[in-house]
Design brief:
It is a single chain. This protein is of the alpha/beta class. The chain has 16 helices and 14 strands. The radius of gyration is 24 Å and the shape is globular. The chain starts with a strand and ends with a helix. The structure holds D-xylose and nickel (II) ion (NI) (2 copies).
Length: about 450
């Protein structure tokens, strides 16, 4: 791809302007069909429902390499210049992309935006310098930081983990990175700060003291939380569950596991969950399930939207394009009262063979449209269909008589058993799964 220079300013995506909303009848791949940022649905604009964010690492760093071959995508901001110059060019390109797409937020790891230096101090300086530039870019464009994080899994020193590394010296380097990433997040007004486990987990129990490693993780997160609060971070800390990859057994396995961990270490007041579709499915759950688990615990924070391939078990990080998934999650999110300080971050990459610059736009547009359609359909199901009534009806035996007394905790086991003796065998009540499924499908049109 070529770079255009207009009035001394480089344009990294020439020929592509601001992405317009053209409606469902449009054939233009570079226009929104359903995502109309100002359209109000269920009392909120679409912009506010989704709080979409671009993931810096996939969109501007990952050039498509896989275990079988190197990258395929040529980034015009990467032509062998020295690392800090490349970071500055990449920042320009990123803000051009985000602004043209009309997405309100972005997310990054420290190493996505600024290169690792020769030692801790140089790495800090690099991040500080780029943070100052990013701040200007945010002010000029109105784009905001949904969350920052530290990449404490890529460098070889983290091969046995970061906060759970058996070597204390490695843990201190993770602390140095998290400290600086928290400072960058605060400087940029980040609304959340994410901890994804990275290599916090194990490959074999033979060489692993799991209890000790998890205690270290709990302590590390407490210290990180305290430092963030000390420097003025008022946002939400988020843990992102994932069951496996890179380690065989990641400690932050799924929503339920992380909720237990947060409560055990006294973190539940400051931390919530950042849930990712492809991680939930790797854990054997649906995206909707893991979101609902977090909602029910009062710990639903934010989402990494993507999807896996239903026919294999890999973390393929595809752009979410499955409408059924979108409807299912929007049903859960709408009933939960929507996203608060969280958002929907596109933790997704275009396929290795999608090498045209416009493919990065199309990938985001397609996913935003899928989710916008999911919102419209879910809203109709909730407001126009008998869905909620049907589900409530299933539990109506607890809404009167002895059922109410049970829910109030007034019936002991003996009294409950007496009721069974008196009433005899209950009539079978159908769960009606197929009826629910047909109802959802009727609204997908
Ligand atoms: C990797 C994770 C990662 C986090 C941020 O699987 O999804 O990208 O979102 O560290
Ligand atoms: Ni992921
Ligand atoms: Ni993620």
């Amino acid at each position: 791809m070529s770079v255009k220079v207009v009035l001394g300013k480089k344009e990294y995506f020439p020929g592509i302007g601001k992405i317009p909303f053209e409606g469902p009848d449009s054939d233009n791949p570079l226009a929104f069909k359903y995502y109309d940022e100002n359209r109000v649905v269920a009392g909120k604009s679409m912009r506010d429902h989704f709080r979409f964010a671009v993931a810096y690492w996939h969109s501007f760093c990952g050039a498509g390499s896989d275990p079988f071959g190197p990258g395929t995508i040529t980034f015009p901001w990467d032509h062998g210049q020295e690392p800090m110059q490349m970071a500055r060019d990449k920042l320009d390109a990123a803000f051009e992309f985000i602004t043209k797409l009309g997405i309100p937020f972005y997310c990054f790891h420290d190493r996505d935006i600024a290169p690792e230096g020769g030692d801790v101090r140089e790495s800090w300086k690099n991040l500080e310098d780029i943070t100052a530039l990013a701040k200007k870019k945010q002010e000029e464009s109105g784009v905001r930081l949904l969350w920052g994080t530290a990449n404490v899994f890529g460098h070889k020193r983290y091969m046995n983990g970061a906060a759970t590394n058996p070597d204390f010296a490695v843990l201190t380097h993770a602390a140095a990175q998290v400290k600086a990433a928290l400072e960058a997040t605060v400087a940029l007004g980040g609304e959340n700060y994410v901890f994804w486990g990275g290599r916090e987990g194990y490959y074999t129990l033979l060489n692993t003291d799991m209890k000790r490693e998890q205690e270290h993780l709990g302590l590390f997160l407490q210290k990180a939380r305290d430092y963030g609060r000390k420097i003025g971070f008022k946002g939400t800390y988020l843990i992102e569950p994932k069951p496996m990859e890179p380690t065989k057994h990641q400690y932050d396995f799924d929503s339920a596991t992380v909720i237990g961990f947060l409560r055990q270490y006294g973190l539940a007041g400051d931390f919530k969950l950042n849930i990712e579709n492809n991680h939930a499915t790797l854990a054997g759950h649906t995206f909707a399930h893991d979101i609902q688990v977090a909602v029910d615990a009062g710990l639903f924070g934010s989402l990494d939207v993507n999807q896996g391939d239903p026919h294999n078990g890999w973390d393929t990080d595809e752009f979410l394009h499955n409408l059924y998934d979108a409807v299912e999650i929007m049903l859960v999110i709408l009933q939960a009262g929507g996203l608060k300080s969280g958002g929907m971050n596109f933790d997704a990459k275009r396929r290795r063979s999608s090498t045209d610059p416009e493919d990065l736009f199309i990938a985001h547009i397609s996913s935003m449209d899928t989710l916008a359609r999911g919102l419209l359909i879910a809203d109709s199901i909730l407001t126009q269909s008998p869905y909620l009534k049907m589900r409530k009806e299933r539990y109506s035996s607890y809404d009167s008589g002895k059922g109410v007394a049970f829910e109030r905790g007034e019936l002991d086991l003996e009294k409950l058993a007496d009721l069974a003796v008196k009433a005899g065998e209950p009539a079978l009540i159908s769960g009606k799964q197929e009826l629910y499924e047909s109802l959802i499908n009727r609204y997908i049109h």
